[in-house]
User: Fold this.
Amino acid sequence: MSQKKGGTHAMQTVTVIALGRLNADYYAKAAAEYAKRLGAYCRLNVVELPEEPIAEKSASPAVVAKALEKEGKAILAAVPKGSCLVALCIEGKQKTSEELAAFFAGRAQSGAGDVAFAIGSSHGLSEGVKQTAAVRLSMSRMTFPHQLARVMLLEQIYRAFSINGGGKYHK
Assistant:
């Protein structure tokens, strides 16, 4: 996002809505570092929601679906009014870092720049969240722990803003 001298461009707000806490110190430190770096480019809000407890490892699809539905309602309630919802899900479209940068730039230029990303629990996201989302994004066809996915997402958001700002971070 380019700042015009003397202009009053509103800074974009990026909200990351994530199920569960970053309980590994190394993930928390990495997420905090990218959050700090992003402060130069956007207002970042990280909303941590509790995962629905699922009793047994081999829970039935119905039990998992019910938990996802409850988590999904909490996610949708946490999306700030006017934000474009991006659901991180395996069936989403993969984007390059440049394409993500262009997405942020396009949102900023449209005047509706705020973006909210939803990261589900280890069981994923509810169909309701996926259907509500304006964009479905896949970080990779590989599977990652959802805590690592949050760090990767923050890094890519930082990279996108760095690209748009003409920074040297992206090579």
